[in-house]
Amino acid sequence: MEIRGYKRIKKKDIKRWFKGSNLVLYVLILLLLFALIMFAYRTIAGMHNDNIDNELNNQTEDLDNESSLQEETSTYVAKNQSYRIRINVSKNIAVISTVDGTSENGRTIKAFHIAVNKNIKTGSTVISEKAEWRKLDNNGYAHYSSRLDNSEYICSTAYFTKTIGNMNIDEYNKIGTSLTYGSIFMAPADAKWIYNNCGINTSVEILSDFDIPSDADIKEFKKYNYIDKLEE
Q1: What is the pLDDT along the chain (232 residues), one digit of tens a residue?
Q2: Distances, alpha carbon 213 to alpha carbons 31, 89, 116, 187, 230, in Å
Q3: Which residues of 28-37 are buried (b: 16+ CB within 10 A; e: fewer)?
Q4: Bridge partner list, 116
Q5: Which 3 state secondary structure label does DSSP give 122?
Q6: Global pTM value
Q7: Is 185 exposed, middle or buried (0-12, 13-18, 19+ CB in 10 A)?
C-alpha cells in the first residue's frame, strides 16, 4: 500500500534492516555519532576550563603585582640615616644613638633588651631592606623586619601567623637572653621603631661587647604573663 507516493513500511521490513551486514553498519554509525558528541562536549568543556584558568591566572598576576608593589614600598619606609644602631651580643642590648658628628657615639636615643644569636656575624653592616612580615626558619613570622647587608636581620620575636596578637609568647620571653638560632630579636614596639625611623643604609654595628653609654635609660624587661596587655 502506498500513502502519497510512499510505500508503507512493514514491521518485517524493519526487522530485515537489522539483519546481516546492516546491523554492523548501524552500530558503526551510532559509534561515530557518539564519538562526535563526545568530541563536541570535550571541546566546549575545554574552552570553558581555559576561560576559568585565564581568569585565575589574571587574578594571580594582579595579586603578585600588588604584593611586589607592597614589598617595594615597604623597603623604603624610612629614608633617613640619622641614627646608628649598636648591638651588644654578650649583654643582649641594643643602643640607638644619633649621628651628629659632635661625638664618636652621638646622643643615645633608645636602649633596650634584645635576644641575640650568640653565633651571629659581628662587624659593621647597614640596613639593606625592610619587610613588614618575614618568614622565619622555625616556621614562624617576624614583624617589622629590617634585613642587614650581612644577611642578618633585626625584627620582632616570632609570631605563629602574620597576625598581631598571635605572638609566640615563649619566644618573646627569651628577650634578654642569648640564643643559638636566628639573628636579632626584640619586642615588637622596638622593632617597629627601627622599622619606621632607621632608613636604608643606616649603620649597624654588631659587637661582642662594649660599654653601655651612661645616658642610656634601659628599662627592665618584663616577661609576658598572659594577663598583661603586650604593647605591639
Answers
A1: 454 544 555 555 555 555 555 666 777 777 888 888 888 877 777 676 665 555 555 554 544 444 433 343 344 445 567 899 999 999 999 999 998 755 566 889 999 999 999 999 999 999 999 999 999 987 799 999 999 999 999 999 999 999 988 999 999 999 999 999 999 999 999 999 999 999 999 999 999 999 999 989 999 888 876 545 555 5
A2: 91, 15, 19, 21, 28
A3: eeeeeeeeee
A4: 178, 184
A5: coil
A6: 0.65
A7: buried
Q: Tell me the three cell numbers of residue 224.
A: 609576658
Output the CA angle 232-113-228, nearest 5 degrees: 40
Buried/exposed 127-148: b ≥16 CB within 10 Å, e otherwise: bbbbbbbbebeeebbbbbbbbb
**Residue closest to 146 by CA, chosen among 206, 191, 84:** 191
